[in-house]
Design a protein that fits this description.
Elements (H helix, E strand, L loop, with lengths): L4 H67 L2 H8 L4 H13 L5 E8 L4 E3 L13 H9 L3 E6 L6 E10 L5 E10 H9 L8 E5 L5 E5 L11 H16 L3 E6 L3 E9 L4 E8 H5 L2 H45 L14 H70 L4 E6 L4 E4 L3 H5 L3 H4 L4 H5 L6 H10 L5 E6 L5 E13 L2 E11 L1 H27 L5 H16 L3 E8 L2 E8 L11 E2 L6 H6 L3 E4 L11 H5 L5 E9 L2 E10 L5 H43 L8 H16 L3 H13 L9 H4 L7 H8 L1 H9 L6 H8 L21 H16 L10 H10 L7 H13 L1 H9 L4
Antiparallel strand pairs: 1-2, 1-5, 3-4, 4-5, 6-7, 6-10, 8-9, 9-10, 11-12, 11-15, 13-14, 14-15, 16-17, 16-21, 17-18, 19-20, 20-21
Helix pairs in contact: 1-8, 2-3, 8-9, 14-15, 14-18, 15-18, 19-20, 19-25, 19-27, 20-24, 24-25, 25-26, 26-27, 27-28
Keywords: Coiled coil, Membrane, Transmembrane, Transmembrane helix
Protein name: PAS domain S-box-containing protein
Organism: Proteiniborus ethanoligenes
């Protein structure tokens, strides 16, 4: 087999050339794949854990957004609170929200006056404002997550707290949503990392919150053997957001950890290193197996290749001898596409050409005779085709005329562009659509036409040549600056995979777009007017009303300044101002006779002053006029039912449109009507207070010793509430409750009330019923819960003893606690039929001695601080004998 020396050499050379790269490749492949697989495996696990931590953080973020959206409903919830059965309604509303989520276990609302609402029955006791979740919301003034022990039938829960703010950005309370740990840890347990791996969840202090998998170590209770390695791991986790770290315990582990940003929790996964490197033994066997097979394959391949080279050489040698001897019919039987095959074909072709030369000469002569006959037949056919062509031409001319008539009568611009992107046709609508003449358009190329386009020229060029446009809106501007918006449609004509032409239709939609923009602008104006109107109708404060209107006008019309002044006799008093130039206006009252804007307050008609022409600056307006920030003073009267109550001034750089004046007139009329309603409300409020005081006077007329008692209790309660920083509404209601707290005594006999000696058990029982009698008298009036609770429970003690005994409550209402302290203080500091008065200082000491049992400790502390810091107020109230 190997007698041929040339073939042996080929086999040896091919084997050596092939085996060396295989050995080098095997060694290099093992080293690189080993490193790559391990590194990529670690990167993949690290990335996977970070991704899962990010998903968990997204869960916190999404729920935080839902809770923020829920807190935005506080105005609605606040309206429910002030209703007669407000607490029940709010609790029902929170219960309905709880049903929408399986992960939420409770939703609560805690107000500043310690009122608590809940979607579930309240299991906790004490003041909810002293709990960590409520305090954290007050301190952070934003949404905060608080980890807590279990108060429910669960292992524990986490609370999301977000504060409520009033219009002056003061905190009125907080929304608290409790989530179960069970749902959160289920998400962590579902994180896939590696077989036999263990996942730990740690809080920011390093405490283990959850473990999933077979627990190999206890990070909180590790033995001394592992203490150093675990301390190093804990240090790395505490000060690094994510990463990996090697740790040796009972075996070598790879610790992969990541942080959940919302809670600063750490998710730690311990993976045995043996799992990561387990696949490398298989890789070594595979490399050896592949190398051995490759070696055997190379030897066999070398033998086959050497045979392929030697066999064609022998055949070529034999054929060359035959051709040399004159045998031109000899054919090489080598069917290959390589160099050997090409040489054999060349030899075969050469012999065939020599043999066929004579035969080709005879066949050419016969062919010339046949061609002559064919030319004669073609001449006859050409004459017939010419006649048909003339008839077809006449038909095409007639069709072209009809086509041109149709295209010419269209309202849209029709154009045709050739394969070189040059316009070869356009109908007569070119001037009406693009405002340019036909001569300039026809013959222009695509780039010239797109020079009229005002934006995205390159993008539009690529769209036209690569696709068909469908209702594409394009903005054009001709050489004279005329702008128009068109709608374009194109169709590419392609034959044999080659672009032949582009047909296009352009329609002018400028008027349509202007109408759409006008409708959009009007809609935006209506939205802003509606928003301003809602803001105006939700306040009973004239300054807040005016400020909301001024802010809305400057934002809607983009003007430098807007001021609202109300008439106070013959002067215009500033109530609100807004805008970038508002720092230049005067805060002084403007006499209506000393400035031109006062004319509007007299005439009650709109007036537009053009600065520098109609309007002459006064000392009140010289700063803003000299700033050159406004060119017009648009002055409107604020009037309702024919009565002028003020003036609205809008300073602008441009002349306002007619529609904008309609908006200003609408807003000024609303201001006037609402201001009038506010004045009527204040009058009703004063009459209401007088009626309340009359009722209190009727009570005290029965007993000369208690004359002025209700007035003093009301004032003490009011001062305590103010010192606590309670809302204005609460202060007003606690004042009313103090005046009426003893109204139930109207239902008790005069002899019992004024009896100088000791009361019998029956008489004392009659006295104990006056809180319930008072609540019965007033329940049909519709007073708020604050007033009714103050009247009903002012004799209820802090430890819930006292009376009325037949009504059970979980906690003493804040308003009742306040009136109870005020009532006791006045009783001790005034003379009664059964005892003499003591000094205020002694009374304070008596309150302190009985706090935490009879009196609310916090209210007693407030009363003590109030007396120390404002002793003159307390003395003034004590000395007052009448309302």
């Amino acid at each position: 087999m190997f007698s041929n020396t040339y073939r042996k050499k080929l086999i040896i050379i091919f084997t050596i050339i092939a085996i060396i790269p295989i050995l080098l490749f095997a060694a290099s492949t093992y080293t690189k794949i080993n490193t790559y697989i391990v590194e990529e495996n670690i990167k993949a696990k690290n990335f996977h854990l970070e991704s899962e931590a990010e998903k968990l953080d997204i869960w916190f973020t999404v729920n935080a957004e839902k809770i923020s959206d829920l807190s935005a409903n506080y105005p609605l919830i606040k309206e429910l609170m002030i209703q007669t059965d407000g607490k029940k309604r709010v609790n029902e509303y929170l219960s309905s929200l709880l049903k929408s989520s399986k992960e939420i276990i409770n939703i609560r609302i805690v107000t500043e006056n310690s009122e608590e609402y809940s979607s579930k029955p309240i299991l906790s006791s004490g003041d909810p404002r002293l709990k960590h979740d409520y305090i954290n919301a007050l301190l952070k003034k934003e949404l905060v997550w608080t980890l807590q022990g279990g108060e429910y039938d669960t292992p524990g829960y986490i609370t999301a707290s977000i504060p409520f703010f009033d219009k002056e950005e003061k905190i009125e309370g907080a929304l608290l949503v409790d989530f179960s740990f069970e749902g959160i840890f289920k998400r962590i347990t579902e994180i896939e990392t590696e077989g036999n791996s263990i996942k730990y969840v740690l809080n920011r202090q390093g405490k283990v919150l959850n473990v999933s998998g077979d627990e190999l170590i206890d990070i909180d209770k590790a033995g001394k053997h592992y203490e150093k390695n675990i301390s190093s791991l804990a240090w790395e986790i505490a000060y690094t957001d994510s990463g990996t770290k090697n740790i040796t315990l009972d075996q070598d582990y790879l610790a992969i950890f990541s942080t959940v940003p919302s809670t600063s929790w750490k998710i730690v996964s311990l993976i045995p290193k043996s799992n990561i490197y387990s696949g490398m033994n298989v890789l070594i066997k595979d490399v050896i197996y592949v190398s051995a097979i490759s070696f055997v394959f190379i030897i066999l391949l070398s033998m086959m290749i050497s045979k392929v080279f030697t066999e064609p050489l022998e055949k070529l040698k034999e054929g060359a001898i035959e051709i040399q001897n004159g045998n031109y019919d000899y054919k090489f039987n080598i069917k290959k596409d390589d160099e050997f095959g090409q040489v054999a074909l060349s030899f075969n072709d050469m012999a065939s050409k020599l043999k066929k030369s004579y035969e080709d000469l005879n066949s050419n002569n016969e062919m010339l005779l046949e061609i002559n006959e064919q030319l004669q037949d073609m001449n006859v056919e050409l004459e017939a085709s010419y006649n048909q062509l003339m008839a077809t031409t006449e038909q095409l001319n007639e069709s072209e005329q009809k086509f041109r008539t149709l295209i010419g009568n269209m309202y849209d611009l029709v154009w045709i562009m050739d394969s070189d992107y040059n316009v070869v046709f356009a109908n007569e609508q070119i001037e009406s659509v693009l405002k340019t003449n036909k001569e300039n358009f026809v013959g222009s190329n695509l780039e010239t036409i797109l020079s009229y386009v005002t934006e995205n020229k390159e993008e539009l060029y690529n769209e036209i040549i690569s696709s068909d446009l469908r209702n594409k809106e394009i903005s054009f501007a001709n050489r004279q600056g005329h702008r128009s918006i068109v709608e374009a449609n194109t169709k590419r004509v392609i034959e044999n995979d080659r672009l032949v032409a582009i047909h296009g239709v352009i329609r002018d939609i400028t008027s349509r777009k202007e109408m759409e923009e006008n409708l959009k602008r009007k809609n935006e104006e209506l939205v802003v007017i509606n928003r301003v109107s809602r803001g105006l109708t939700t306040t009973m404060n004239i300054e807040t009303l005016a400020q909301r209107a001024a802010d809305g006008i400057t934002r809607l019309m983009d003007v430098p300044v807007c001021t609202i002044r109300l008439l106070d006799e013959d002067r215009l008093k500033l109530k609100a101002y807004s805008g970038d130039a508002s720092d230049l206006i005067t805060l002084e009252d403007i006499p209506i006779d000393e400035d031109d804007i006062g004319k509007v307050a007299k005439t009650g008609r709109l007036h537009i002053f053009e600065v520098g022409r109609e309007y002459k600056k006064s000392r009140y307006t010289e700063r803003i006029i000299d700033s050159n920030k406004i060119n017009y003073l648009n002055t409107l009267p604020i009037k309702a039912r024919g009565k002028i109550s003020g003036v609205m001034v809008v300073g602008s750089q441009r002349s306002l449109e007619k529609g904008e004046f309609h908006i200003l007139a609408s807003i000024s009329n609303q201001i006037a009507l609402i201001a009038e309603n506010i004045a009527l409300y204040e009058g009703l409020k004063q009459n209401y207070i007088k009626t309340i005081k009359t009722l209190a006077a009727a009570i005290e007329a029965k007993d000369e010793y208690t004359e002025g008692h209700s007035y003093r209790v009301s004032k003490y309660s009011l001062e305590i509430s103010k010192y606590m920083g309670m809302p204005k509404k609460f202060c007003e209601e606690i004042e009313v409750a103090g005046i009426l707290h003893d109204i139930g005594k109207l239902g008790i006999k005069d002899g019992v009330l004024t009896k100088p000696g000791r009361l019998t058990e029956k008489e004392y029982e009659m006295i104990r019923r006056h809180p319930l009698i008072g609540s019965k008298i007033l329940e049909v009036v519709g007073f708020s819960d604050v007033i009714m609770n103050g009247i009903k429970f002012h004799h209820k003690r802090y430890d819930l003893k006292g009376y009325p005994e037949e009504i059970y409550i979980d906690e003493l209402p804040l308003e009742a606690a306040i009136i109870g302290v005020a009532d006791a203080f006045d009783a001790m500091t005034t003379n009664r039929a059964y005892k003499n008065a003591i000094t205020p200082k002694e009374a304070i000491e008596e309150l302190i001695q009985n706090k935490n049992t009879q009196f609310h400790p916090y209210i007693v502390d407030i009363m003590s601080d109030l007396y120390k810091s404002n002793k003159s107020i307390i003395d003034t109230i004590i000395e007052s004998d009448a309302m």
